[in-house]
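User: Could you go from structure to sequence for me? I need the amino acid at each position, not a summary. Structure tokens:
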């Protein structure tokens, strides 16, 4: 006899591919957030992604305009944050 009782759990709604993949709107929003704050983790969280996935995307797109935009936005954000302090 099974003595375990089924305990109902709340299930998160199923995620769509766009929820856990980089899309062009997410990349654009990420770069805007990065230019504003200069912090990769914070900018990635703002678009629902992780810091690690942002760095993986940069590595995967090394040598492209994205890699340059990534570093440019990061530098701009760091300067903006320093000026605000």
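Assistant: Here is the amino acid at each position, in order:
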């Amino acid at each position: 006899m099974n003595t375990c009782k089924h305990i109902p759990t709340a299930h998160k709604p199923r995620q769509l591919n766009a929820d856990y993949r980089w899309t062009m709107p997410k990349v654009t929003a990420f770069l805007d957030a990065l230019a504003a704050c200069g912090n990769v983790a914070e900018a990635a969280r703002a678009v629902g992604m992780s810091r690690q996935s942002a760095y993986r995307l940069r590595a995967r797109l090394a040598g492209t305009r994205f890699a340059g935009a990534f570093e440019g936005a990061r530098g701009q954000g760091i300067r903006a944050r320093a000026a605000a302090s």
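One structural detail worth keeping in mind: The mean pLDDT is 87.
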